[in-house]
Amino acid sequence: MSSLCIQVINPNTTQSMTDTIARAARAAAAPTTEIIAVSPAQGVPSIEGHADEAIAALGVLEQVKRGREQGVDGHIIACFGDPGLLAARELANGPVIGIAEAAMHMATLVATRFSVVTTLPRTLIIARHLVRQYGFTHHCAALHAIDLPVLALEESRGLAQEKVRSRCLQAQREDGCGAIVLGCGGMATLARDLTQELGMPVIDGVGAAVKMVESLVSLGLGTSKYGDLAFPREKKITGAFQHLN
């Protein structure tokens, strides 16, 4: 019987990506940790911009509410933009970890500087905003894009995976970094092989987030309910969002 249950939320609606994320989460989890991988029933098939994130955030909140009602111990938001992270923490008792924040934190524990490899060039701006928000500006050496959409990682040709590998090798040669952060949940299963090939830490935020949730729960730490992360003030939600009541 599991001693810990973690809800892993893929904020987009693509089931194959949810399956990829689930495999990475289970590979990182302790034997006694149960992983429940979910995605919203409505939303966008991939998250590649600010509007996508805004839509996806509502699905994240819906899933966090459902997970809390089911009694999960913690939640992971498995999109590198960490959509809806602070709002999700308002709804949750247990810890809520975004994979970008988790990967960047882990990178600073094993290297003084890290680079990020992500998907489309437009998402570099979002990643840069997160680097600043999380306080890692002086730790981040560079950000790279493979210039392919998120769902290219789900295709069988392997082109996207090879481009990730190529960008990681470029970062290792040129950036002066000691670790590389993979900037998409769909890259999650690539980290172990790339770490072995490059001989340096290549960090997947899904696995990093799993270990963070396990650690926080084992220490008896959940999301603070004091200050801005207290449960939302009670008010009646109407219309299309009334299921969030």
Walk me through this protein's architecture.
It catalyses: D-5-benzylhydantoin = L-5-benzylhydantoin; a D-5-monosubstituted hydantoin = a L-5-monosubstituted hydantoin; D-5-isobutylhydantoin = L-5-isobutylhydantoin. One of its GO terms (molecular function) is amino-acid racemase activity. It is an enzyme of class 5 (isomerase). This is Hydantoin racemase. The chain has 245 residues and is an alpha/beta fold. It has two domains: 4-99 and 207-244, 3-Layer(aba) Sandwich (Rossmann fold); 100-205, Rossmann fold (3-Layer(aba) Sandwich), CATH 3.40.50. 42% of the residues lie in helices and 15% in strands. The chain has eight helices and eight strands, in the order βαβαβαβαβαβαβαβα. Helix 1 crosses helix 8 (205-218), helix 2 runs parallel beside helix 3 (85-91) and helix 4 (99-110) crosses helix 8 (205-218). The longest helix is centred in the N-terminal third of the chain and has 21 residues, at 50-70. The model has no long low-confidence stretch (mean pLDDT 95).
* Number of discrete domains: 2
Order of helices and strands: EHEHEHEHEHEHEHEH
Supply the CATH architecture of the largest domain.
Answer: 3-Layer(aba) Sandwich
Tally of contiguous helical segments = 8
Largest sheet: 4 strands, parallel
Distance between the termini: 32 Å
Low-pLDDT runs of 5+ residues are none
Write down how many β-strands occur, each being a DSSP E stretch of 2 or more residues. 8
Q: Tell the overall outline.
A: globular
Widest β-sheet, arrangement of strands:
2-1-3-4
CATH topology of the largest domain: Rossmann fold
Residues in helix, %: 40-55%
Decide which structural class fits the backbone.
alpha/beta
Indicate the mean pLDDT: 95
The CATH first-level class of the largest domain comes to Alpha Beta
